[in-house]
Amino acid sequence: MRVLVPVDRLPHGWEDVRGLEAQEVSARRARYGRNDVRGRPPRSALQSLREAASDPMLWFLVGTSALYFALGEHVNGGVMLLALVPLLGMDVFLHHRTQASTEGLRGRLAERATVSRDGQESEVPAEDVVPGDLMRVEAGSTFPADGLVVRGQGLQAEESSLTGESLPVRKRPLGRLPPGAEPAVEAVHWGLAGTRLLTGTAWVRVVFTGPETLYGSIIRSAGQEARARTPLQQAVAHLVAVLVGVAAALCAVLALVRLRQGFGWLDALLSAATLGVAALPEEFPVALTFFLGAGVYRLARRQALVRQAISVENIGRVSCVCSDKTGTLTEGLLRVARLLPAPGTSPRALLETAVLASREEGRDPLDVALLEAGARDLPGPPAPTREATFPFTEERQRETAVVRRGPGTLLAAVKGAPERVLGLCALSEDARREWALRVDALAREGHKVIACASRTLDAAHWHGGEPDRGFDFAGFVGCEDPVRPGVEAAVRECRDAGLRTVMVTGDHPRTALAVARRLGLGGEHPVVLTGEALEARLADTGGAPPVDVVARALPAQKYALVKALRRQGEVVAAGS
Question: For a FRET experiment, which of 38, 59, 232, 423 has its CA 20 to 30 Å from that of 136?
Answer without folding.
Answer: 38
